[in-house]
């Protein structure tokens, strides 16, 4: 992604974004509210027009990729998903197979396996028949992540996927992501999760990248104060990061 610029309703929301995603890496996207994280992820998913800049996937421009090819490569889980209220969890997860299915061929064993694995991984078996309208916030989030897993993309784009998840599911999700054979770009507000699970962090402020690198180079007390105006201490012990904030 080079020279990305996005203006929404006359407001410049992203400015001069240059990013390269390393294959297989977990890249955490950080920044205060309104810094442009969701906008950047939606651009990367090809869902938002940009005023300038190029996004390429393995050397091919995102704009020239046929939609089906793009959908095989990229899965996006937005912050808020709109779903037909009557769809069941299982039906939502099955939607992830749409780009892989051929018009003349039915549902095959590979589709079934991908769906079953995704349901099992997100621990949805007990509620697989339940309708979207009957799900809690966390169950909805896990269903959408399972749909993205069933898609078996090369790049998974997750916009604050830990919203609504209790602490057990947050840790399980990040641990699961660490095992996935794909590139993951994930917007997070929890700096401890970001430091402990991401290979690389990109810090946005007012639509610009102000830091980009390993957790140790991005999550310094000085950088945390610059981005969020909060004083913090950062410790690393036995490969575990702990970030604590001072009371305001
Ligand atoms: N459709 C829109 N029209 C106009 N402005 C928008 C639109 N969508 C987002 N913005 C503005 O763009 C800026 C970036 O928004 P974005 O949602 O990308 O931030 P974010 O970093 O994801 O925030 P948060 O942490 O609160 O989710 C904000 O100032 C927001 O008000």
From TrEMBL:
Query: Record's CDD domains?
Result: ABC_Iron-Siderophores_B12_Hemin (cd03214)
Q: Which UniProt keywords are listed? A: ATP-binding, Nucleotide-binding, Transport
Identify the PROSITE patterns for this entry: ABC_TRANSPORTER_2 (PS50893)
Q: Say if the entry is tagged with keyword Transport.
A: yes
Which Pfam families does this UniProt record tie to the protein?
ABC_tran
Return the Gene3D superfamilies for the record. Answer: P-loop containing nucleotide triphosphate hydrolases
Family of the protein in this entry: Belongs to the ABC transporter superfamily.
Please give the PANTHER family that the UniProt record associates with this protein.
ABC TRANSPORTER ATP-BINDING PROTEIN (PTHR42794:SF2), HEMIN IMPORT ATP-BINDING PROTEIN HMUV (PTHR42794)
Q: What's the protein called, per UniProt?
A: ABC transporter ATP-binding protein
Q: Which organism is it from?
A: Silvania confinis
């Amino acid at each position: 992604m080079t020279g990305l610029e996005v203006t929404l309703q006359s407001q410049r929301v992203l400015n001069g974004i240059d990013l390269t995603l390393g294959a297989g890496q977990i890249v955490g996207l950080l920044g205060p509210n309104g810094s442009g994280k969701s906008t950047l992820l939606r651009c990367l998913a090809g869902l938002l027009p940009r005023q300038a800049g190029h996004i390429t996937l393995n050397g091919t421009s995102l704009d020239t990729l046929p939609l089906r090819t793009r959908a095989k490569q990229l899965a996006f889980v937005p912050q808020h998903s709109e779903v037909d209220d009557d769809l069941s969890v299982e039906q939502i997860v099955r939607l992830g197979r749409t780009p892989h299915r051929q018009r003349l061929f039915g549902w095959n064993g590979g589709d079934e396996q991908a769906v079953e694995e995704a349901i099992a991984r997100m621990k949805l078996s007990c509620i697989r028949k339940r309708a979207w309208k009957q799900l809690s916030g966390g169950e909805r989030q896990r269903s959408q992540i399972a749909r993205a897993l069933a898609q078996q993309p090369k790049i998974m784009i997750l916009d604050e996927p830990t919203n609504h998840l209790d602490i057990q599911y947050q840790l399980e999700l990040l641990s699961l992501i660490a095992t996935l054979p794909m590139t993951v770009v994930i917007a997070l507000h929890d700096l401890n999760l970001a430091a402990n699970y991401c290979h690389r962090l990109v810090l946005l402020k007012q639509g610009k990248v102000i830091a980009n690198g390993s957790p140790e180079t991005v999550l310094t007390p000085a950088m945390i104060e610059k981005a969020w105006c909060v004083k913090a201490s950062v410790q690393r012990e036995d490969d575990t990061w702990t970030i604590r904030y001072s009371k305001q």
